[in-house]
Design goal:
The complex is a heterodimer of chains A (116) and B (112). The relative contact order of chain A is 0.33. The N and C termini of chain A lie far apart (37 Å). Chain A is 0% helix and 49% strand. By secondary structure, chain A is mainly β. Chain B has strands spanning 5-7, 10-14, 19-24, 30-38, 45-50, 56-59, 62-67, 72-77, 86-94, 101-102, 106-111. In chain B, strands 2, 4, 5, 9, 10 and 11 form a 6-stranded mixed β-sheet that branches. A 5-stranded antiparallel β-sheet of chain B has the order 1-3-8-7-6, with no helix packed on it. The model of chain B has no long low-confidence stretch (mean pLDDT 95). Classes of the chains: A mainly beta (116), B mainly beta (112).
C-alpha cells in the first residue's frame, strides 16, 4: 500500500538554527499538507499546498516557515530560525483530491523536532 | 476559530466490551467529517470520511454516525480487542477551506 515517507524520524537542533523536514507524498496525490502536534496538545494545521503554491496557511505559519516541492517528488518544510516552542511532532500528509475526499488524508509517521 | 471537541479524552474498556465516543463540530458550513485511528509511533490512518447528514459507515467492528444539523458524530467499537488501543481523532472540513481541523482525540485503552 502506498505510503507517505518522512525523514528524519527525529531531529535535535540548536535554537536559532535552520531545519528542513522532508516528505515524499504518494505519487499520484495532488494536495499536500503539514501539521504539527506539540506534546499534549491538538494536531494543528500549518499549511496546504497545491499546484506548486500555498493554498492555505495558519497563523502559526509565519515568515520563519516555508514549504517547497523542489523536484516533483519531495515536499519540504523549512524553519529558518528555530525557537524552543517549535519543538513538536511534524506530520506531512497528502490527498488525491480535496473537498470531501472519500479516502481522507494519508499521513506520514512524523518527524519529532526537538529544539534545545 | 473552529472548535472541534472530542469526549471523553481518555477511556479504559474491558476486552470484549463495546464502547463509543463523540466528536462535536460547528454545524454551519459543513463539508465533511473525517475519523482517524492513530497508534503510538505510527501515522494516523483514515477510518471514515462522512459527508451527508445521517451517514452511517462501518469497517469491521467499527462504525460511525453523522448528524450535521446538530454538529456531532459518534464512533462505535463493538467487542473491543487489544489491537483497538489507539487514539481516535476526528477532523472537520469546512466548506471553502483547504484543510481539516482536528479535535484533541480520544485515547482508548483496552484492558485484557
Amino acid at each position: 500500500e502506498p505510503e507517505v515517507t518522512q525523514t528524519p524520524s527525529h531531529q535535535v537542533t540548536q535554537m536559532g538554527q535552520e531545519v528542513i523536514l522532508r516528505c515524499v507524498p504518494i505519487s499520484n496525490h495532488l494536495y499536500f499538507y503539514w501539521y504539527r502536534q506539540i506534546l499534549g496538545q491538538k494536531v494543528e494545521f500549518l499549511v496546504s499546498f497545491y499546484n506548486n503554491e500555498i493554498s492555505e496557511k495558519s497563523e502559526i505559519f509565519d515568515d520563519q516557515f516555508s514549504v517547497e516541492r523542489p523536484d516533483g517528488s519531495n515536499f519540504t518544510l523549512k524553519i529558518r530560525s528555530t525557537k524552543l516552542e517549535d519543538s513538536a511532532m511534524y506530520f506531512c500528509a497528502s490527498s488525491e483530491l480535496t473537498g470531501p475526499d472519500i479516502y481522507g488524508y494519508t499521513f506520514g509517521s512524523g518527524t519529532r523536532l526537538t529544539v534545545v | 476559530i473552529l472548535n472541534v471537541e472530542q469526549s471523553p479524552q481518555s477511556l479504559h474498556v474491558q476486552e470484549g466490551d463495546s464502547t463509543n465516543f463523540t466528536c462535536s463540530f460547528p454545524s454551519s458550513n459543513f463539508y465533511a467529517l473525517h475519523w482517524y485511528r492513530w497508534e503510538t509511533a505510527k501515522s494516523p490512518e483514515a477510518l471514515f470520511v462522512m459527508t451527508l447528514n445521517g451517514d452511517e459507515k462501518k469497517k469491521g467492528r467499527i462504525s460511525a454516525t453523522l448528524n450535521t444539523k446538530e454538529g456531532y458524530s459518534y464512533l462505535y467499537i463493538k467487542g473491543s480487542q487489544p489491537e483497538d488501543s489507539a487514539t481516535y481523532l476526528c477532523a472537520f472540513y469546512r466548506l471553502g477551506d483547504d484543510k481539516i481541523i482536528f479535535g484533541k482525540g480520544t485515547r482508548l485503552h483496552i484492558l485484557p
